[in-house]
Amino acid sequence: MTKGSSLSSYEQLASQIVNNVSNQRTREIINLRFGLKDGQRQTLEAIGQKYGITRERVRQVEEAAFSDFRKPALANLFEPVFKSISNFFNQEGSLVREERLLTSLTSQENPHPSRGALFFALTLGQPYRRFVESDKFYSFWTNSLIASDKADWLISYLVEELENKQEPVSLNYILSCLKQKKFSLAKKALLSYLDATKQIDQDNFGHFGLNKWPQINPRGVKDKAYIIFKEAGRPLHFREVAQLINQSSLGSSLANFGLPLTKQVRLAARQARPQTVHNELIKDSRFILVGRGTYALGEWGYQPGTVRQILIQILKENGSLTKEEVLNQVLKNRLVKPNTVLINLQNREYFNRDKTGKYTLVK
If we measure between CA atoms, which residue out of 290, 267, 265, 295 comes closest to residue 279? Predict the structure, then answer.
């Protein structure tokens, strides 16, 4: 069953079943509850206020209606739809995040009546169970309670593994860990479980890490700049960093694996001003000023300090060096003109030049 035919079937079948209800108010309550007319699903509280009844009474009306809907004469009308839904679940490891499930099977953004009709079908189908949003997971659906137990164990295990690792890991690394644990799970199912959890997400390079990590979920200019530097892999001027932040949309990239994107963090939610970027970079020890307005990551081996301080450190570590050796060492750490280095070497308060032409520190 294609998405198009499913979309039509969801709406037509839901309408056909609901129209079998003789009580007008019950029909209206079901239509409102599932957004069958406009795609806007209403809460028990909102519907109760509309009809002057309690939310518990609305729940009872809905429950009674579904008892009738599940009788074979009506429920059997949905068998082709149930087959299509179950096939999708089975391909995804029997557990799918709700938003991705509704989008994948209807190709519609929220709100849309077809999504409400699919929600109706999922509620009607006996194998399907909805788990509400929690601290660990977004709202998700499953057609197997075993799958929900597997997902719960998997995410707990991966969170602990990532806490110990303290850095993002590749999908292959995760699969390797699961293999060592003799935990069998297809790659597509693993991605579906990862999509459903709030605790783990992807960085811009396709690696997985804890959502609370700044390199996974950047929360400010400094975190966004760090991702830009990691992606560029080279020193950048602060103006270029600001420009790249404003142009970028980084975050979870499950779509790279053929899955609809349901998690996304936009780096450019606000325009980053160059001067703000400059001010933030200079205050953060992760970034080293290596040239006029140009920064690099300290983890790349760059040392903090002025050219003179770099010279002192180099000579302290290496003893006497020729002019060429000094230049080579400094230019690994700073994007400056050779003449700037030579001018600093002429400071006799700190540096000596012996008869062989080598430079040492003043004792």
Answer: 295
